[in-house]
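Is it possible to get an amino acid sequence alongside its tokenized fold?
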Amino acid sequence: MIQLHRVTKYYEGVPALRDVSFTVEKGEFAFVTGMSGAGKTTLLKILYCAERADEGQIIIQGMNIFRLNPSSIPYLRRNMGFVFQDYKLLPHKTVFDNIALALKVVGAPYGDIERRAYVVLKKVGMENKRHLTPPKLSGGEQQRVAIARALVNEPQVLLADEPTGNLDPQSGHDIFRLFKDINMKGTTVLVATHDWETVKKMQRRIITMERGRVTDDGKRFGRPPAPADLSGAKAK
């Protein structure tokens, strides 16, 4: 489903990712962990085609993203969902309208928009607050809406970048449990996070990064990654 081979990314000549290689199988749930500056966000941005790697190969759902022209990127993203740490919801639009917009941009019929938006909001437990705007919601509720938006086009792959970074522990636990439920229904899930304690409890594959490199792949239990010396590094 997702294959990376020796992926490297530079910022102003400094490597943010260095020879990153791993595969996430279809239907798998995996975490990418590491201290701040390890390269987690850079990695997900490249997978989502928000940025481009300088070296290596990346295959997502059978498509080589190095060979994609810009006009093909929206097609790839239709089969991917992305959850941001800061939600990126439109504050003056209702919960329902935030979800509906994701369907409108792909040309979904109006009847389908109403039905699919309601279904996905019910899936994340937010159907009763669909008429509210994001500022009237808690952080956990806003993240649930962001997840609903990522799922409304029924993506085969869900990427999440520090999705619990702004949440209290209980809300964070609820979000990870929601990801687990989504994965059990067949969606491939890749989550970047430094929330090591929650990751251990989830008992899923853990890909550990340090200073832009993968230092451990597949460990389920153990110690959290040690703080890295980030002097001179610009990984994100």
